[in-house]
Amino acid sequence: MIWNETKECMSRDEMTALQSARLVKLVDRVYHNVEPYRKKMQQIGLEPGDIRGLEDITKLPFTTKDDLRDNYPFGLFAVPNSQITRIHASSGTTGKATVVGYTRRDIDIWSECVARCITMAGLGKNDIIQIAYGYGLFTGGLGAHYGAEKMGATVVPMSTGNTKKLVSMMVDFGVTGIMCTPSYLLHIAETIRDMGLRDKIKLKASINGAEPWSEKMRMEMESMLGIHSHDIYGLSEIMGPGVATDCIYHKGLHVQEDHFLPEIIDRNTFEPVPDGTEGELVLTTLTKEGLPLIRYRTKDLTSITHGKCECGRTSARISRFTGRTDDMLIIRGVNVFPSQVENALLELSGTTPHYLMIVDRQDNHDSLEVQVEMEEKFFSDEIRGLEDMTRKIEHALKDAIGLAVKVKLVEPNSIERSMGKTKHVIDNRKY
Amino acid sequence: MFVKQLSVFIENREGRLEQVTGCLSEKGINILALSMADTQEFGILRMIVSAPEKALEALKEKGFSAKLTDVLAVRMEDKPGQLHQITHILCTKQVNIEYMYSMATTERLAIIVKASDGEKAEEALTEGGLKVYGEQEMN
User: CB atoms < 10 A from the CB of A19, how many?
Assistant: First the structure.
């Protein structure tokens, strides 16, 4: 099944024409409504009329997360607040959140994109779908929810937390689809196994995103549950989940190209690379009203192909992500930068002690331990004093990154330094 | 009158305590009393040593987190009721004991006490007829 055959199976010429027309309008709209963009274009002597189609896209400057931060909270919005119907936010690098705003039409288009993705996973309006992403400022829960409703499925808004209850309902309701992070699905699969309910579930497919995962993990999930698992890609700056998903052939993720224009650029020269070559994914929101972004650098590494897929769709496909160009970690769906930990420690102690973040996955649950080297000012000759200090650091880090952290005080100089530079992250997770 | 206690932060892994004792041994420092407070991940080694300042310097040079704390060393006799005498006095005066451990050398028996209010504790113990050692009496 294809949700929107007109758009998803367009010929390349038609798609290019559509994208060109939308890009021209977008640039014009952004130039006149978003001051920081206008200034950026004026600085390089670029006028809206200079962009006549897709072929001119490389003339446009890039947008980065810094632009969002510099214009916090609403500085890049292209419409007055009266037209913004929803706000979402994700964690930023310096404690300030990245804020995104949607008009009613943006929410409609987002739901349309998610509906396409769910259909790509082989689910339809007769299915019962559990949404087990967190609901709230995070785009995962509400994004998936609206899309599943739009598609016509019966939606069960589970959110995260009570896994046994989720599994009981999965059995009782005859749930056939689930949307959650891949690591959470593995945890759910283990709970199903431990509860001895593998034969009682009717699950057919899962749609998983907000975390990097591998083909190996997909195979594991599929065989544990007897289902098809699909990778859904998205980022709040662009929209949320639903930018791209893989179909049942799993030959890359189909990008919703009529709304999001993908480019792959060389990570060093920032020049476009040919199909099949790895580089950084850059996205332009062709239709977004609330927060339109031009050439947004996602920092995600992938490659692209434009050939027709066995499923019949002609949309460009991006390969599974191979990494990031920055040091961002994704832990339980939360974006974490080492600089956030550093800033929190700095605020707490006035200096930055040496620290090491250790990310692990136990029982399919991501955990973050932060080792902090003991400093004079932390040291107490009483256990209670040290335990209080540990809790205090844990609270400060939790406030900073929005994730429960285990802090371990370690001896001075025990964290390895190489060439004068300290390695701040060890990621033991197997993708 | 207080004595200087040397405390060292030690991670709960093999070989760490040996490093501390090795360092003190090298410098010819005598350990008169010690206690180890530990949790799952780390411990605090508390010691009364023959030359606290010198020991502190030596440990810091080796990269340890260490510090000196004022504690009370109360003379004891080897007979029943001695410890109770101390706890009773402190309890009556509403002084809390943060931690305590014993010291037994060939010259003397003592209880090392870290009280919530050190001066109040010392006053009460002296009033109660107990002997509180000073730093120079320890060597």
Answer: 22
| B65 contacts A374? CB cut-off 8 A | yes
- Which residues of chain A are within 8 Å of residue B5 when distances are taken between CB atoms? 381
> What is the ipTM, given to two decimal places?
0.83
Domain range list for chain A:
5-325, 331-427
Note whether B9 contacts A375, CB cutoff 8 Å. no
**What amino acid occupies position A193?**
R
Q: Which numeric CATH code is attached to A5-325? A: 3.40.50.12780
CATH architecture entry for B3-69: 2-Layer Sandwich (3.30)
pLDDT of residue A347: 85
pLDDT tens digits along A140-168: 999 999 999 999 999 999 999 899 999 99
Using CA atoms, how far apart are residues A67 and A36, in angstroms rounded to an integer? Answer: 9
Topology of the domain covering A331-427:
GMP Synthetase; Chain A, domain 3 (3.30.300)
Q: Concatenate the DSSP letters of all residues of A62-113 into one string.
A: PB-HHHHHHTTTTTT-SS-GGGEEEEEEE--TTSPPEEEEEEHHHHHHHHHH
φ, ψ (nearest 5 deg) of residue B49: -125, 165
What topology does CATH give the domain B71-138? VC0802-like (3.30.2130)
Which of B9, B40, B69 is most worth mutating to test chain A (most A CB atoms within 10 A of its CB)?
B9
Exposed/middle/buried for residue A428 (C-beta within 10 Å: 0-12, 13-18, 19+): exposed
DSSP three-state, residue A417: strand
Report domain extents, chain B: 3-69, 71-138
Collapsed DSSP state (helix, strand, coil) of residue B101 = strand
- Cα(A98)–Cα(A139) distance, integer angstroms: 12
* Residues of chain B contacting residue A410, judged by C-beta atoms under 8 Å apart: 11, 42
pLDDT confidence band for A307 (50 / 70 / 90): very high
Query: Nearest Cα to A258, choosing from A20, A75, A430, A420?
Result: A20
pLDDT at A333: 80
